[in-house]
Predict the 3D structure of the following.
Amino acid sequence: MKHVIIGMDPHKRSATIEVIDHRENVLAQGRFGTDRDGYQAMLKAGRKYPHRTWAVEGCNGIGRHVAQRLVADGETVLDVPASHATRYQRWPQLTRR
């Protein structure tokens, strides 16, 4: 299987993820709690893809704790500044018109 990116939008009590492949096809998505059980379920969902990188919005802010947990569990994590995440989220809406 090809490399995937697991994009994450973290919040105080939940994190939403979307798994995309090299062609930007959505392979999976989900919303998970940030408690121990929710984090473990999210990690398990991500580990279904052997070649993965987590792209976490705001690793220096709201996403810091979940990013640190991922790194501690041996995951590769990239910080996505909120300004870049917003641009990416808006782009598909603009092309659908």
Notes: Confidence is low (pLDDT under 50) at residues 86-97. The two ends are 33 Å apart (CA to CA). Strands lie at 4-10, 14-20, 26-33, 52-57, 77-80. DSSP finds three helices and five strands in the chain.
